[in-house]
Amino acid sequence: MSKETNAFLQRPLRGLRKLILTQVRWFRNAPVTTQAMIWAAAAGFTFSVLNTFLRVLSQSMHPFQAQFLRYLMGVLVMLPLMLRVGLSHYRPRDIRGQFSRGFVHAIGLSLWFYALPHLALADMTAIGYTGPIFSMIGAAYLLGEKMRLDRWVAAIIGFIGVLIVVGPRLSGSGGWYSLIMLASAPMFSLSFLLTKILTRHENPQTIVVWQGITVSIITLPMALWVWQAPTATQWLMLLITGVLGSLGHFFLTHSLRAADLSSTQSVKFLDLLWATAWGFLIFGDHPSSTTLLGGVVIVLATLWIARRESRRAAVPQR
């Protein structure tokens, strides 16, 4: 290969590398609230891909077995890194807190997985958006975080968008499963609050690893009750869910560590856009007019609070 050809091929790579480094520098210099919201958005997108795989799995495998194997695969995926860094690095300072969080999360998961095969991804995601309301209230009363008026307004506007999406479906054939999915929301919110507490004295890697360990232990009896040998394809999909789940929780934990829980909750409403897209592309779910209208309301609320949080963080505190 001539020097001219080599230089021609290297030019786009240098440009891409420069672009990536520029974005990394921008991210590091951004206000911490903006960083937290970006972490939260990355977590939401990753979880949307994960949920797509899990819905496929739950249609051919019992939900209780799927939830156990999904978290077990997460632990196995992280095991090489744990061995390379050293197991002592992942020794928790608060083992009781880790298992408390795992127990609460496992309850929410059992409800969520049970309803998952019977709901469209967009509907499932929209119902889960009641979680930020529980999270904001819990953060104010349990963590002492300041609940500003604009955060409440953003959450309420986003929740109105959710009602526009899911309201017409509650009276349909999936109404019962919608209520089961709804019951999982406060459990996940409590899990997020416990995660926020753990970030005060645990690093994100330890929290992610121990969530996988504790949930796997707690959900094992339910999985054994309904166990059927997975196929090779199912094992491959489970391995992928392990990677996605660990990555998503890593992003989420960084978000919770960077800023107040309340300041990032409205970003979660973007997940509805991802869920609608994956539902259409993979399952042929056609978004209704109410889903699209609700999505617009949610995006407007998200953009509004993101702008306000960024401006507030840029103002020096007296």
Give a quick summary of the entry.
The chain has about 325 residues and is mostly helical. The chain has helices at about 5-30, 30-60, 65-85, 95-115, 120-130, 130-140, 150-165, 175-200, 205-225, 230-260, 260-265, 270-285, 290-315.
Describe this structure in words.
- It is a single chain.
- The chain is an all-alpha fold and 318 residues long.
- 79% of the residues lie in helices and 0% in strands.
- The protein contains 13 helices and no strands.
- Helix 3 packs antiparallel against helix 4, helix 3 crosses helix 10 and helix 4 packs antiparallel against helix 8.
- It is globular.
- The mean pLDDT is 79.
Secondary structure layout:
Elements: H1 3-29, H2 32-58, H3 63-85, H4 95-115, H5 121-128, H6 131-142, H7 149-166, H8 175-198, H9 204-225, H10 232-258, H11 261-264, H12 271-283, H13 289-314
Helix pairs in contact: 2-10, 2-12, 2-13, 3-4, 3-9, 3-10, 4-8, 4-9, 5-7, 5-8, 5-12, 6-8, 7-13, 9-10
Quickly give the structural class: mainly alpha
Mind telling me the C-alpha Rg? Answer: 21 Å
Number of DSSP helical runs: 13
Strand content: under 5%
> Secondary-structure element sequence?
HHHHHHHHHHHHH
- List segments where confidence is low: pLDDT < 50 over at least 5 consecutive residues: none
| Averaged pLDDT | 79
Biggest β-sheet, characterized? none
Number of strands: 0
Q: How many angstroms does the end-to-end distance come to?
A: 62 Å
Give helix % range: over 70%
What sort of overall outline do the alpha carbons produce when their principal axes are compared?
globular
